[in-house]
Structure formats: structure tokens, C-alpha cells
């Protein structure tokens, strides 16, 4: 069976081509309903009668198209599956555009959880990441307007927009007692999925390959990167899929075949009857150098397949955090007018046959980043000053302490020690020394934090992966 699937790009799902599923089509002669079984004709008659009654007798005018779309959405909502959704023609076109070489927006994957649009992951170096959006942030408002009642696709259409324009997202964040208003400047989001470099540490040449998503040519780009690093004398390899929401399944399969040895499984696909298809690596010999993966809580779908394959198929280590936990497969189905259904039709299992949906893949070596990596962005209206307190003060304290200005406490109370730390920061960054955090000081604090986060020397997970490579290469 030829599989063409997408995990996570724009809609965070896995897709099969529509002609792959004929064997799972139900008997068209009978339809199961709550009160029993209706023939196809009786079911159609019941639906058409309800449609006619609403059109003719409902108190307000309503179009047939609106009712039909509502009926489809209602059927999908009864599944209680955030990955099974209806897309209008416009939404389907926008989704397709997101699979191209670039799109314009904020660069974040989203899904619907408990009726709320939720950030799965901000893409690396995207406007969403730079603005401080984090996985599991729940979007309550867009530009001050509530999005309650909107579908996921409708919300995404409001979030996306032209490069250079700003959208303000009102965020509910776990652990924060206050809602956060986060302005994000939209930009062109390039789909350059593979970045690589050679890093020398302890006299070893260690290759780093970062995969931001699994698009149509990612496996080819990965192969080029791998061959280039090997030709330059690579003695160890780090594969980084942090913040990677997924992509085409065949791409992660092909990557797995380059690094998973001994004809071990890379992934398994399970149908509704429990039958499984295993994708087996064709690589016969183990690489001569150690390989270590890195994951975080934003690593999803295809990233999780690769992490599971490294651990269970390749017996390699993975460093970092437990992954997102997306283990179902969706099929895209055209409805004839440009609109589409995305419907969960399969589960995917790890190389070892484990179902990670809702659970994620646990790394073999768990490493968290420094606390300030996770601090919420500062949103300053009135300056933070001596004796003020609250969530904004607590976040500022975490940031300042993380970048080397000791506040003495991180409980959200702005005391004399915090004033001193702010003064030291302001002096070090050529700001007016006031001991208060106004909008200018907050902006510079966040800029310095972003610089520190991007510095590999401060990246605890990456440094742990390097140390593990060195230990394994020299033993």
C-alpha cells in the first residue's frame, strides 16, 4: 500500500489519499442510527425533511448551504475528535497553500482542545516564537474579539494575514492567573525544513541536523546533510526535532531508512480492526558513530515517529522532554465542491508497537531547559515598581535571574533586591536607571532573553546531547 500522509502542517494531522480507503466504506444500503437501522432512502428522506422544515419555518432566514455545512460539522463534533474537521473551499485552499514553500502568518501549529483553539507549537524562529507563544497556550480572543463558537479553521483564517500586519492574541496559560495579550507581527513563514552544521567539542566532530517539519523534500535534504557531514568526518550525530509539528509520513520513513539499522521497524499503522502494517528500515549495518535525538513537548506526529524509531528501532538515546502525543491518522476527502473532510481513520504506533496518542514519547534522558526559557512574555501597561506584585513581576524576576541579574526571589513581589537587579540590567543595557520596568525595559529584557535562548551554550538539552555523544564515542 502506497501511503501519502501529512502530519501536522497547518492542521496537525496525518492524511491518507482518498482512494486508499475503499475497503473501509460502510454498506450504503443501511445506516445505523440511535433508534435502529434506516435504509439509505429512509435516511435521506429524514434528513431532507428536517432540512425543509428548518428552511421553511425557522424564525430567521437561513441558507441551505449554511445548514448543510452545519450538519457536516455537527456529525464531526459528535466524534469528539479534535483532528476530524470540515474545511470549506477557502479553508482547504489555505491549508494547501501552507504546504508550499512558504505562507504568511505567525508560524504556529494549533488544534482544538475542550472547545478552545490551542497552540501545539510555535515554529522555530517564527513570529509566534519571538512573541513568546508557548505550547498549550489557549487563544480566547483575536484582536480583542472573542472566538468562542468559531471552528478551528475559522480561527486560523483570522490569525493568518499579510506580512507586516499585527494580530493580538489573548492567551490563557496554565500557571498564570492573568490573561496575556500577545501582539504578533505576521511574516512570510518559509518552509526550509533541514538545517545542519558541524560542531567541534572535546576534539570530536559532531554533526547537528535540525528538522523543523517533514515536507515534500525533507528526506532528500536530510540525506544531503547526512552525506555532507559524513564526508567531513562526522564522529557523532545529533538530530533535533524540537518544535517540529510533523509532516509527510513517507519523509520520516525515508529518513528512518537512513539511520535505523538491522531492518528494524520505523513505524506501524493500525486500522480500525486492529490489523497492523509495519514499515521496515532497509539499512543493514549500524552507523559507525553514535546518534542522539532531541525532543520537547512541541515535538509531534512525525517527530514522535522518528523519536520512537530512534529509541525502539535503533536503540539510540533521545534527550529532552516528553513529546506532544499525537498518534492518529487522518484521511482527506474531497466533497466535490472544493471543500474537504479530514477524518481520523487509523492509528500510528511506534516502532515497538506502542500507542502514544495522548501520552507522547518519553526520552531516554529527560532534560528540562532553564526556568526562564518558559517564562511568559511581559505585557506592561503601568510600570512595575517597588512593592507591586503579580504574574508580570514573577515572570520578570524569572527572566532577569536567568540572564544573570539576581532578583533574590521569583514569587511575584517587587522588593528592594528586584529593584537592584532591574537597575543593574538597565545600566548594563544603556537604559535610564529607574529600578522600574516600563515598556522599554520590558522589551529589552525580552530581547536579551531571546538571544540567550538561541545561544546553544545555554541550551541544556543540546548540551546534554553533546555530552552523551562524546561519552558514547569515546567509550
From TrEMBL:
Record bears the keyword Flavoprotein: no
Any GO MF annotation of the entry: serine-type endopeptidase activity
GO biological process: proteolysis; signal transduction
Organism superkingdom: Bacteria
Domain PDZ: 84-160
Entry GO terms, CC: outer membrane-bounded periplasmic space
PROSITE patterns to which the protein is assigned, alphabetical: PDZ (PS50106)
EC number: 3.4.21.102
Pfam families the UniProt entry points to: CtpB_N-like (PF22694), PDZ_6 (PF17820), Peptidase_S41 (PF03572), PG_binding_1 (PF01471)
InterPro entries: ClpP/crotonase-like_dom_sf, CtpA/B_N, PDZ, PDZ_6, PDZ_sf, Peptidase_S41A, Peptidoglycan-bd-like, PGBD-like_sf
SMART domains hit by this protein: PDZ (SM00228), TSPc (SM00245)
Reaction catalyzed: The enzyme shows specific recognition of a C-terminal tripeptide, Xaa-Yaa-Zaa, in which Xaa is preferably Ala or Leu, Yaa is preferably Ala or Tyr, and Zaa is preferably Ala, but then cleaves at a variable distance from the C-terminus. A typical cleavage is -Ala-Ala-|-Arg-Ala-Ala-Lys-Glu-Asn-Tyr-Ala-Leu-Ala-Ala
Keywords from the UniProt entry: Hydrolase, Protease, Serine protease
Cell membrane among keywords: no
Enzyme class: hydrolase
Protein family membership: Belongs to the peptidase S41A family.
Name recorded for this polypeptide: C-terminal processing peptidase
Species per Swiss-Prot/TrEMBL record: Halalkalibacter suaedae
Record lineage: Bacteria, Bacillati, Bacillota, Bacilli, Bacillales
Amino acid at each position: 500500500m502506497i501511503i501519502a500522509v501529512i502530519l501536522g502542517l497547518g492542521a496537525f494531522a496525518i492524511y491518507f489519499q482518498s482512494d486508499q480507503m475503499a475497503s473501509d466504506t460502510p454498506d450504503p444500503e443501511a445506516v445505523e442510527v440511535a433508534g435502529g437501522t434506516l435504509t439509505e432512502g429512509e435516511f435521506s428522506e429524514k434528513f431532507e425533511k428536517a432540512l425543509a422544515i428548518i428552511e421553511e419555518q425557522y424564525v430567521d432566514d437561513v441558507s441551505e448551504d449554511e445548514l448543510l455545512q452545519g450538519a457536516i460539522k455537527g456529525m464531526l463534533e459528535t466524534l469528539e475528535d479534535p483532528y476530524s474537521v470540515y474545511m470549506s473551499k477557502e479553508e482547504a485552499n489555505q491549508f494547501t497553500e501552507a504546504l508550499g514553500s512558504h505562507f504568511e502568518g505567525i508560524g504556529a501549529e494549533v488544534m482544538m482542545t475542550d472547545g478552545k483553539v490551542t497552540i501545539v507549537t510555535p515554529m522555530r524562529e517564527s513570529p509566534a516564537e519571538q512573541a513568546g507563544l508557548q505550547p498549550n497556550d489557549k487563544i480566547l480572543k483575536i484582536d480583542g474579539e472573542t472566538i468562542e463558537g468559531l471552528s478551528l479553521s475559522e480561527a486560523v483564517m483570522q490569525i493568518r494575514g499579510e506580512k507586516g500586519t499585527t494580530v493580538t492574541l489573548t492567551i490563557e496559560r496554565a500557571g498564570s492567573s492573568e490573561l496575556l495579550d500577545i501582539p504578533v507581527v505576521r511574516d512570510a513563514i518559509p518552509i526550509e525544513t533541514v538545517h545542519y552544521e558541524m560542531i567541534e567539542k572535546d576534539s570530536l566532530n559532531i554533526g547537528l541536523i535540525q528538522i523543523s517539519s517533514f515536507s515534500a523534500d525533507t528526506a532528500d535534504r536530510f540525506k544531503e546533510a547526512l552525506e555532507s557531514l559524513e564526508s567531513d568526518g562526522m564522529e557523532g550525530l545529533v538530530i533535533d526535532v524540537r518544535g517540529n509539528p510533523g509532516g509527510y509520513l513517507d519523509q520520516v520513513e525515508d529518513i528512518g531508512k537512513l539511520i535505523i539499522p538491522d531492518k528494524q521497524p520505523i513505524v506501524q499503522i493500525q486500522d480500525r480492526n486492529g490489523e497492523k502494517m509495519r514499515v521496515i528500515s532497509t539499512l543493514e549495518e549500524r552507523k559507525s558513530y553514535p546518534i542522539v535525538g532531541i525532543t520537547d513537548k512541541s515535538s509531534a506526529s512525525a517527530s514522535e515517529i522518528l523519536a520512537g524509531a530512534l529509541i525502539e528501532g535503533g536503540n539510540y538515546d533521545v534527550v529532552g522532554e516528553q513529546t506532544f502525543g499525537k498518534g492518529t491518522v487522518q484521511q482527506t476527502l474531497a466533497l466535490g465542491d472544493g471543500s474537504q473532510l479530514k477524518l481520523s481513520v487509523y492509528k500510528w504506533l511506534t516502532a515497538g508497537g506502542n500507542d502514544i496518542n495522548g501520552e507522547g514519547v518519553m526520552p531516554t534522558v529527560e532534560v528540562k531547559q532553564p526556568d526562564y526559557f518558559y517564562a511568559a512574555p511581559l505585557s506592561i501597561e503601568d510600570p512595575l515598581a517597588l512593592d507591586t506584585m503579580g504574574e508580570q513581576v514573577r515572570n520578570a524576576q524569572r527572566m532577569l535571574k536567568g540572564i544573570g541579574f539576581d532578583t533574590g526571589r521569583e514569587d511575584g513581589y517587587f522588593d528592594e533586591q528586584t529593584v537592584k537587579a532591574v537597575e543593574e540590567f538597565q545600566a548594563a543595557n544603556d537604559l535610564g536607571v529607574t529600578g522600574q520596568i516600563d515598556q522599554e525595559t520590558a522589551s529589552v529584557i525580552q530581547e536579551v532573553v531571546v538571544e540567550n535562548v538561541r545561544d546553544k551554550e545555554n541550551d541544556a538539552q543540546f548540551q546534554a546531547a553533546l555530552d552523551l555523544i562524546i561519552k558514547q564515542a569515546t567509550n
